[in-house]
Specification:
- By secondary structure, this protein is α/β, with parallel strands linked by helices.
- Helices cover 25% and strands 25% of the residues.
- Helix 5 packs across helix 6.
- It is globular, with a radius of gyration of 21 Å.
- The protein starts with 22 loop residues before the first strand and ends in a 10-residue tail after the last strand.
- The structure holds NADP nicotinamide-adenine-dinucleotide phosphate (NAP).
- The site of NADP nicotinamide-adenine-dinucleotide phosphate has 29 residues, from helix 2, helix 5, helix 6 and strand 9.
Length: 353
C-alpha cells in the first residue's frame, strides 16, 4: 500500500505556533435540496488565501434565511446568484467569527492573531478564506458565538431602518423575535423610537427584553385591526396584504416590507417584496427594501452599537458543525428565536481566541 506524506498547507503563517493543517472538516453540498438530504460532513482541503484574502480559523458560524435559500436552491430566481444547476460554493455558510491564521500579502490591514467577524463564502468549515474588507475586529464584549450571529441579519436590519426611523416615532416590527427582527427591535430602540414587537406568546418576554416598549401576541391580536397607528412598520412576516397592513400607519407613516410568501416556487419570499417595490412607485407610504451585501461600514456601525451596549446578539440554539442540517432545518420552520449558531471549537463561547 502506498502512503503519502502529509502535504503541508502552502501558507506558512500560523497562530501561536500552531501549524495550519492541509485538510479540515467541512459541511459540503453537491446539489440543491432539503438540508437533511444534501448536507454532509467531509474532509476537504484547507483553502489558501489569494488576492488580499485572509485565512480564518472558524470558532463559530451562524445561519440566516439566505443560507437556507442557497442550500435549497429556492426560490428558483435565487439560482442566478448561487448557481444555476448546483451550488457555486460547495461549502455553505456566510456569517463567521474567528481568528486570522494567515494573510495573503501585507496590505490587508489584518494580522495573524486578529479576532474578527463578518462575511465569507464557506463558513460551515473549520477554516475559511475571506476578503479582508468583509471583516471587522470582534468587539471585546462579545463571544465568538455572538459575533458570528451579527453579519447579514444585523446589517440587513440596519439598512432597513437607518434614515427611516427617527427619535420619538412609533415603530412596529412584525416578526420581532427572529434573526432579523431581534436586531430590528434593538436598533429601532437605539435610534430613539418607541417600539412595538409582534411575536407569539412564548417570545413576548424576549422581545420586551430587547427594548420593545409594547408587545403584541399575534395569536391573540391582529395589529392591523387595532386602534394604534404607527409611523413606521417593518414587516418581516407579510401575513396580511400590503394595503391591509398600511391601514395601521399614521397618515405620513411608511410600511417597509421585507418578506412574504406570495411568489411561489420561482419568487418565494421575494413575491411580496417585488409587489412592494411596484406599489412604492405610487405611494410614499410603501417602501421596498434595498438591502445590499456586504458593506463593511454597516458592520462597523453595528460593532459600535454593540460596544455601546445598545445592541446584543440574541443567540437562539447552538449546534455542532456535524449538526448543520438540523440547524438549517430549524430556520426553515419559520419560528426560530434569535440566531442559530454552529460552534466549531472550545473558543466559540469565549470572548478571546
Ligand atoms: N435574516 C436575514 O439576514 C434576512 C436578510 C434579509 C431579509 N430577510 C427576510 O426577513 C424575514 C425574517 O427574517 P428572520 O431572520 O427574522 O427570520 P426567522 O429567524 O426565521 O424568524 C421568523 C420570525 O417570524 C415570527 N413569526 C412567524 N409567524 C409570525 C406571525 N404570523 N406574526 C408575527 N411573527 C411571526 C417568528 O416568531 P414566533 O416564533 O414567535 O412565531 C420568528 O421569530 C425572512 O423571512 C427574510 O425573507 C432576512
Amino acid at each position: 500500500m502506498t502512503t503519502h506524506a502529509p502535504v503541508p498547507h502552502p501558507t506558512t503563517a500560523s497562530t501561536a505556533g500552531t501549524a495550519i493543517p492541509s485538510s479540515m472538516k467541512a459541511i459540503v453540498q453537491d446539489r440543491y435540496g432539503s438540508p437533511e438530504s444534501v448536507l454532509k460532513l467531509e474532509d476537504v482541503a484547507v483553502p489558501v488565501p489569494h488576492d488580499g484574502e485572509v485565512l480564518i480559523r472558524v470558532h463559530a458560524a451562524s445561519i440566516h434565511v439566505g443560507d437556507l435559500v442557497a442550500i435549497e436552491g429556492e426560490p428558483l430566481i435565487a439560482r442566478a446568484a448561487v448557481g444555476l444547476r448546483k451550488p457555486k460554493n460547495r461549502v455553505p455558510g456566510t456569517d463567521v467569527a474567528g481568528t486570522v491564521v494567515a494573510v495573503d500579502g501585507g496590505s490587508t490591514g489584518l494580522q495573524v492573531g486578529d479576532e474578527v467577524f463578518g462575511w465569507c463564502a464557506g463558513a460551515f468549515a473549520e477554516y475559511v478564506c475571506a476578503r479582508a474588507d468583509h471583516l471587522v475586529p470582534k468587539p471585546s464584549n462579545l463571544t465568538f458565538e455572538q459575533a458570528a450571529a451579527v453579519g447579514v441579519s444585523a446589517s440587513a436590519a440596519l439598512q432597513l431602518l437607518r434614515g427611516r426611523v427617527r427619535p420619538g416615532q412609533k415603530v412596529l416590527v412584525n416578526g420581532a423575535s427572529g434573526g432579523l427582527g431581534s436586531y430590528a427591535i434593538q436598533i429601532a430602540a437605539a435610534f430613539g423610537a418607541e417600539v412595538t414587537g409582534v411575536s407569539s406568546a412564548c417570545n413576548l418576554d424576549t422581545v420586551r427584553s430587547l427594548g420593545a416598549a409594547h408587545v403584541i401576541d399575534y395569536t391573540m391580536e391582529d395589529f392591523t385591526l387595532g386602534k394604534q397607528r404607527y409611523d413606521f412598520i417593518l414587516d418581516n412576516v407579510a401575513n396580511h396584504s400590503l394595503s391591509h397592513t398600511r391601514r395601521a400607519l399614521t397618515p405620513d407613516g411608511v410600511l417597509q416590507s421585507n418578506n412574504g410568501t406570495s411568489g411561489g416556487r420561482w419568487f418565494g419570499t421575494m413575491g411580496t417584496v417585488m409587489k412592494a417595490a411596484i406599489v412604492s412607485r405610487f405611494t410614499r407610504r410603501q417602501s421596498a427594501p434595498t438591502i445590499k451585501f456586504p458593506r463593511r461600514e454597516d458592520l462597523l456601525a453595528i460593532a459600535a452599537l454593540i460596544e455601546a451596549g445598545k445592541v446584543t446578539p440574541l443567540i437562539g440554539r447552538t449546534y455542532r458543525l456535524q449538526e448543520a442540517a438540523q440547524a438549517v432545518s430549524h430556520i426553515a420552520g419559520g419560528h426560530a428565536r434569535g440566531t442559530s449558531v454552529l460552534t466549531l471549537d472550545a473558543r466559540a463561547g469565549s470572548r478571546a481566541g
